[in-house]
Structures are given as C-alpha cells and as structure tokens.
Design a protein that fits this description.
By secondary structure, the protein is an alpha/beta fold. The protein has two domains: 200 residues, P-loop containing nucleotide triphosphate hydrolases (Rossmann fold, 3-Layer(aba) Sandwich); 62 residues, no CATH class. The chain is built from eleven helices and seven strands. The chain has a seven-stranded mixed β-sheet with strand order 2-3-4-1-5-6-7.
Length: 280
C-alpha cells in the first residue's frame, strides 16, 4: 500500500502497482538498448487516450502533448526526432497502420519505420479501436502487450482494462481476428483506471490538437473520395490511352496526373481502374 500511495502521489493519478512495476522493468530494458511498443484498444469514448497518456508519463516524466501524433506523418516525425528513451503516442493509429491498408504506401512506410527505430530505445503506444484492425506484423510481432479498455456493465462511468502479455496477445489475435472476439484467451484480472491526467499536462491543447486532427482527416477523406470519383469518370479514356495504347503502368499514370497538377498516388489510380477491369 505504501508503494501505491507514493506512486500515486508522485504521478498525480492512480496506476495499478503490478502494471507500474512492469513498466519499470521495461524501462530498465529500454535503458539497456531495447524498445517497447504497446497497443491500447477499446470502443470510442472509453478512455484509451487517457490510459495511454498515463502509461506514457509513468515511463517518461518529460512526456507532454507534443509527444502525441495524430497522423502517420506526425508519428514518423516524433519517432525520428524525440530524444532516446522517450515515450510517444500514435493516437488513432488506425489511420496509418490499419490491417485493411496493409498494401498502401503509408502503411508500408510506417511498418518499416517501426522496424528501423528499435535503436532509438523508445516507448511507443499505439491507440486504436481494436487490435484486430492493426496491421498483422504490429499486432502479433512488434507490440509487447495489449491493454484492452472496457467499462463495467452495471456502472458504465467506471473504466477498467485487461492486460494481454506477448503470448496471450498473439493467441487473441490468431483466434479472434475473424470474428473480432476477445473471448479467448480468458483474462480474468481487471485493472481500474480513472480519467485524470498527469500534473502539468496541457489537456486543453491536447484536446484542441485532437479535434483539429479529426477535422483534417475527415477533409482528407473527402478529398480522396472526390479524386477517386473524378478519376473513375475519366479512367475509361485514361485506361485506353495510357495503358492499352501507350503501355503505361499505374505508377506512370499517377506520375502523369501529378505532373499535370492533379497529385495522386499509384494506389488511388489502382482503386479507380480495378472496377473498370472487372467490368463494374
């Protein structure tokens, strides 16, 4: 109890003693050249980001809202720029490390980034709605543990999480990915946590940045949809002229659009062309 009280007083919020001890053991390993990547998942509004901030601050007392990235580009800059042994968060990691986007340029770039930054000795927390949405390499091999956030059925205002270690996490993913089920393996122990931020953490700035990132993502999705729609309307002609007649591949077609003032990635061209090839 003395340890719990002293840690809570030092941090400014409650953290389960065995979770704190685990993080401290992980910190020792990071100081000796390793890194640690964790996944935090759960339904929207249950406090995943709050828990992520609490865990990140526990291992890095210099952690601030500046150590949180809301897009693949922001996360990559943080991973390459922050001092060694820092903690960083990729909030809404689904935007760059989605299993459905495993073949996209951004996804491949971020997966390679996670392969390259080991020597930076970082604590990395990936936050998203479900680990089953996470790219397979990250979900099974790269993440050390999963913190799955839930609420109590009888009192939805109270939050808790279950911790899956490396082995349990792998079992969970392989057994549950098809049905999105957390049933197996059965994790009994629950850890309570509360919506409280570290002392000195700028909550207002963090929430403002998160809202701006959400709006930017929404705008980007709208622009991509409009571009794909525009491409689909003109790709009948493009596909014939550039591919059939001039033997240009999708990358070359994308480059031509970009140089003509319509920046587009090869994957976007492919999305537009595939329905035409299948006769849809």
């Amino acid at each position: 109890m003395v340890i719990v009280n002293s840690v809570t007083k030092e941090l400014g919020y409650y953290i389960a003693p065995d979770i704190y001890e685990e993080l401290m053991r992980a910190k020792e390993k990071v100081e000796h050249g390793l890194d640690r990547v964790y996944c935090i998942d759960g339904r929207e509004g249950l406090g995943k980001s709050t828990l992520g901030i609490q865990l990140a601050y526990a291992v890095d007392r210099k952690f601030t809202d500046d150590n949180i990235g809301f897009s693949g580009m922001q996360f990559e800059k943080l991973a390459r720029r922050v001092p060694k042994q820092s903690a960083i968060i990729f909030d809404e990691a689904f935007n760059g490390l989605s299993s459905k986007g495993a073949l996209t340029y951004e996804n491949k770039r971020l997966v390679r980034l996670l392969m390259e930054v080991r020597q930076r000795q970082l604590f990395i927390f990936l936050i998203l709605p479900s680990i089953f949405m996470l790219e397979k390499y990250c979900a099974i091999l790269r993440t050390q543990a999963l913190f799955h956030v839930r609420d109590y059925q009888k009192n939805y205002k109270l939050r808790y999480y279950k911790r899956y270690n490396y082995h349990n996490k792998k079992q969970l993913y392989l057994k549950g990915v098809k049905t999105l089920s957390y049933y197996y393996p059965k994790i009994i122990h629950k850890y309570n946590f509360f919506k409280k931020y570290p002392a000195g953490f700028d909550v207002d700035t963090y929430l403002k940045r998160k809202e701006e990132a959400f709006k930017a993502t929404h705008h980007k999705m709208e622009q991509e949809h409009k571009l794909i729609t525009r491409l689909k309307g003109g790709l009948n002609l493009s596909w014939y002229l550039f591919n059939k007649k001039y033997n240009m591949n999708h990358t070359e077609i994308a480059k031509m659009y970009t140089e003509s003032g319509y920046p587009v990635h090869r994957s976007t061209v492919t999305k537009g062309i595939r329905p035409l090839e299948s006769g849809e």
